[in-house]
Write a structure and sequence with these properties.
This protein is an alpha+beta fold. Helix content is 25%, strand content 43%. The chain is built from one helix and six strands. The longest helix is centred in the first third of the chain and has 22 residues. The N and C termini lie far apart (60 Å).
């Protein structure tokens, strides 16, 4: 009887984890645009929602909305060896 309860609990945990992963699916995709030399963000229907462009002078990625307003930047953190995002005020 106890083995049956353990198997049921494991199965419920597995189903819960599967449902959780499917709920947190990716909301956008990235596509590189060679003509504008930038990476564009597209929503699930393929509509452009923004883009990012590398700034050689400051050595960072700058993120823009479709109205060309800068909304954030990605800077490289040498200590942690990772890109870090910060919003522009």
């Amino acid at each position: 009887m106890e083995l049956n309860l353990v198997a049921m609990k494991m199965m419920l945990i597995g189903v819960f984890m599967l449902c959780t992963v499917s709920v947190w699916a990716q909301d956008y995709t990235e596509k590189y645009n060679e003509f504008y030399d930038r990476t564009e963000f597209l929503d699930k229907s393929g509509k452009k929602i923004g883009y990012k462009k590398y700034n050689e002078f400051y050595k960072r990625w700058e993120v823009f909305d479709m109205n060309h307003h800068k909304i954030g930047i990605y800077k490289w953190n040498d200590f942690y060896k990772r890109w870090e995002y910060s919003k522009v005020k």
